[in-house]
Amino acid sequence: MKSTSISLSSVLIAIVGIVMFSAKAVMVKLAYQYDVSSLHLLVFRMVFALPFYLGLLYFFRPQNPIEIRNSDYVWLILFGFIGYYLASYFDFLGLKYIKAGLERIILFVYPTLVLLISRIFLKTKITTKQLIAILITYVGVVIAFWGEINLEGSNIALGAFLIFLSALTYASYLVGSGWLIPKFGVMAFTSLAMIVSTVCVVAHYGITDRGDLLNYPYQVYLLGFLMAIISTLIPSFLVSLAIKRMGANNFSIFGSIGPISTIILAYLFLDERLSTVQFIGAFIVILGVIFISKSKKKTS
């Protein structure tokens, strides 16, 4: 008999990590007031965080080096590429064609994709409790952003497809990190994955842009640094630790807190109006998270 309950500390780690990641959207909006491009802002975010990841990697080497094969490093590079670079890139492209409200709803199909990918490649069982929790959180997200959906305009299908690719790549990262983290350890895996992502972002900038990065107001660099620490460095480790503790499937359900926390943070820092419908949606999402975090019955 073994308990499969999710501890309160794991729940708190997951929530704090997701909320800190969500703060990125507020900082991006604040930075856009200074006419900075999205790619340049992404470069600042990753480059400012890079020295910390390099330092942490020096002190926290892989925990089980004997168990790590060369193919594991190949997988780590792949997941670093798709997790914090490619998923973001597809997201930026998709937002050219559809409204943010619709983007968020499409993006948060990733918990379902995590379950499906885990089922297909890792033979992980999908429980009834997980399916119910996903349904509850999806309903909450849709309600919260229902008023923002605008289907007018061209290239809606292309935009939706790009956002779906973003959700698919992020879901693949979550599944991959779920079985690689125990081999490398939380600190080493996260540092290596983020270093790979930084290299990809810088390469993207070098190939497609090469614009001047040194003529922005100091506020842009300050916001870039805050994004690097508050919405990249710290939450990346919290998310990896949460995945290690509760598994990629359960963590993906907690991801539905992301858009709700974005609403609240935008209300607090950007004076964006929080409607009654959004409050209702947020409450439903919280119900879904509480449902999955409640202790499961012991199984034999």
Automatic annotation (TrEMBL):
The chain crosses the membrane at residues 12-32, 38-60, 72-93, 105-122, 131-149, 155-174, 186-207, 219-239, 251-270, 276-293. Pfam families: EamA. It is found in: Membrane. Gene3D superfamilies: 1.10.3730.20. Keywords: Membrane, Transmembrane, Transmembrane helix. Its main location: membrane. It is a multi-pass membrane protein. It comes from the Bacteria. InterPro entries: AA-Vitamin_Transporters, EamA_dom, EmrE-like. Residues 9-145, 158-293 form the EamA domain. Belongs to the EamA transporter family. This is DMT family transporter. It comes from Urechidicola vernalis.
